[in-house]
Every structure is written in structure tokens, then in C-alpha cells.
Amino acid sequence: MCKSLCACLLSCITLLFSPPLRAQSDVIKLQNCEGNPYQQTVDSIKKASVDQGYILLREASVQMESEYELPVVLPMQAGTVYQFFFIGDPTSKLYEVRMYDFNERQVVYKRHQWGDIDGSVISYTYVPQFSEYHMIKPVQVNKQKKKLCGYVMLMKKPEPTARK
Question: Which of 5, 10, 21, 141 has the CB geometry, 3.0–4.6 Å to 94, for a possible disulfide?
């Protein structure tokens, strides 16, 4: 009995300190960009959106890596009008944003290329059918730079305005 208890205890300790479980603490953390190279664009988008009745929910200037998606998970309420903005590095050749609902079904796909009229800014309006978490995945491709800056903003129309 004592030997089996010691063996069980030793197994538990070994599992607790095994590399796969310790590796969970090695999480990649989002890093802000140095300064905000898109501040003028951000300010003009905010002003135009506020004039249209939107309020700012979340915004972040984040460091991105070329060709790698940046997952952003946000709770959204059914029937509310949301406006999402992604601003990428102006020297990137490709910009994409995909949005998925809670069931991992793609509900939005936007793609811009360098030289498009909208350039490095992708925006879209979305009204979720259900109150649930959504995942937004912006990505940009740049052949000259590996580390890039990106800026994401989520706005919504207040309830009385959203129902009109």
C-alpha cells in the first residue's frame, strides 16, 4: 500500500514538473508599437465615426509579424451595429481581415492590396445574429520588413441609434 501510494505521488510530481505543463507559462504576449505611426489616420477615423454616432469600445496599437495573423477575441451582442477598423503598415503589399463567429464560421472576409484606394485601412460594419464571442484575424504581408505595426479599433452604435 505504501509503495503504491509513493509511486502515485511520484507520478503526480513528475507530471506537474514536466516540460509540456511548464511550457504553458511561455505565452506570447502582445507588444505595443513604439509610438503610433498611424495617429493622424486613427484620429480622423475616430472623428468621422463619432460624427456617424459610433462610440469607441476597444483600440490597440500592436506589433505584428509579416504573414502571421493576429487573433483578437471580442464579445459582441446580437443586433448591435459594430464597426471594425484595421490599419496596416503602408509599405505592406497585402492586408486581410477575417472574422469568425463562436462556431468558427467565417462571417467576414476583407482583402486589400497595396495601391488600392483604401490602401492600408480595412473597415467593415457587422451586426451579429447572436450574442457571443467573435474572433477577428488581421494579417499583412510585407517583403521588406518582418516586424510591423498594426492598429485595430472596434466601435459600436449605442442601442437607441442601432435600432433605427
Answer: 141
